[in-house]
Amino acid sequence: QVQLVESGGGSVQPGGSLRLSCAASGIIFRIYAMAWYRQAPGKQRELVASVTSGGIISGGITNYADSVKGRFTISRDYAKNTVDLQMNSLKSEDTAVYYCNAKRRDGLSTEYDYWGQGTQVTVSA
Fold first, then answer.
1. What pLDDT shows up at residue 107?
2. Engineered SS bond to 49: which of 66, 74, 111, 112, CB 3.0-4.6 Å?
């Protein structure tokens, strides 16, 4: 079992910045990808950014939604078992509940998917 706890959400004005953090605990061995999703009212949950390391526990390949490229940066700290999302130049359309996600593959390649409780990000004047 993997537990994910998000922090750093809040309310900011357009153009402002926030940094979200997600701490993973439990059976963290072989977590090969971590990501941030978001869900706005009346909309489906969407992928914001992800970092995938495969069998390597350093570095990683990042992917971003087109809507956040150049503004958001995802980073995983393998020593601290955390993944952060630095959000700059925030827009009102970034308002959503942001969820941390982790994917783990065991020795038989069975995949497991874990979610945090979510943290609210509100961007408004």
1. 87
2. 74
